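User: Need the bound-state model for adenosine-5'-diphosphate:
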Amino acid sequence: MGTAATSSNIHSSVAEFIAARRPMLINGKWVEAVSGKTFPTYDPSTGEVLANVAEGDREDIDLAVKAARAAFDRGPWRRMTPSERGKLMWKLADLIDAHTQEFAELEALDNGKPMTVARAADVPLAAEMFRYMAGWATKIEGSTIPLSVPYTPGARYHAYTVREPIGVVGQIIPWNFPLLMAAWKLGPALATGCTIVLKPAEQTPLSALRLGELIVEAGFPEGVVNIVTGYGETAGAALAAHPDVDKIAFTGSTEVGKLIVHAAAGNLKKVTLELGGKSPNVILKDADLSTAIPGAASAIFFNQGQCCCAGSRLYVEQAVYDEVLEGISNEAKKIRVGPGMHPKTQLGPLVSDEQFKRVTGYIDAGFKEGARAATGGKQIGNKGYFVEPTVLVDTKANMKVVQEEIGGPVVTAMPFQDLDSLVPMANDSAYGLAAGIWTRDIAKAHQVAEELRAGTVWINCYNIFDAALPFGGYKQSGWGREMGEEALRLYTETKAVCARYA
Ligand code: ADP
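Assistant: Bound-state model below.
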């Protein structure tokens, strides 16, 4: 483990940002919670308080929804051309780029992830998301529809569809990629002309609040983006249930996803969900093991395993099982674990005490059910939420560690005999978010890709994201897709207009 970050190596603007109590963004203004309450966010590498943030609740959500409604119905946002909307989004992307180091540090401090990773992945991907979606703002088109109405013989119609913004959107995001998840959510909503109430996760509210400052600086009209910080059971639940919200977009656990569906039933608001996963990663015996082994390690250990699409079930063809197991265990041992702010850190702490207890609880449950750690399996140190990169073996299909999402750097490795037995094993999950296949045999690659029930299949790569590539889940991994053109459909309503002209 490296040494902890000292205040001297924190960017001065980040130090200033976390030193002051952080208000929320409602109707273009930075405001305290109606209750006056705040809540702490913690540095997961030490467990100490990092900053204090306004604790939004039902009343604050209501004010934010009112602001978003006014901005949608009456604000300049509705009258802006799509090109002007796109320009604002592009400007926001440029501002994010200009503040890359600051964002990387905020993510490292608040979430624990390696600052170098946030700088190379989270922050540029967030900027690119806004650019990609900015391009779509001018391309959200309907169609003309030829009609053949049987009961009005001779009549002629001009019929067309218009894709209109869905309205006021509530967006609830998780703590694993705080800035990037905000961008995935805001991008399509802004491109289509919606207005937004965003609720960041209580564990990691800081980068979204900094993003809010850049949104104001870019010149978005007031009320278009409102950011309410607070807890899930209070602020989040109030947003999901609010009768004047037209759509709720949620990323988080499957358990909370189900609560969101219930909460949304009151006004039948539209719902999209990006939920948990337990993704199979499959190595065939003909794979190039020099890329498959580090690839499989990165598939699970990237972001401390706190990715909903983490390759957490590793299936290896029997003939190469021992070699892969040894290889991935060596990869796990090589990883430099330390505070996110340390420039050499490759794997940071888990995000919170709760997540730490959850992950170590799963490892213990695995041991109790008969699994064994080929490597890892323990806490590192006694300060902060560090867990060793862990490879579990001797697992069985019905064990908790094979069935349930752990959300940490823990992979189960299992051998398989042939593709016929592999496919049902790989699909034996309540989830269906992602999957990986490593092979040199192009036919087998596409055959397995076809048979896996997952929203994303990576072949000879893993965790490859692009703003243009849709992402989302089969089964209990969610409803709908994020990113790509697919996401836009879920932020628009289709209006059919039919005009008789003869
Ligand atoms: P995790 O269990 O991994 O922390 P959650 O699904 O609890 O993930 O959290 C994801 C997001 O959902 C966070 O922003 C959290 O505040 C929010 N949330 C949690 N519970 C609720 C709820 N009952 N209603 C709405 N949002 C919630």
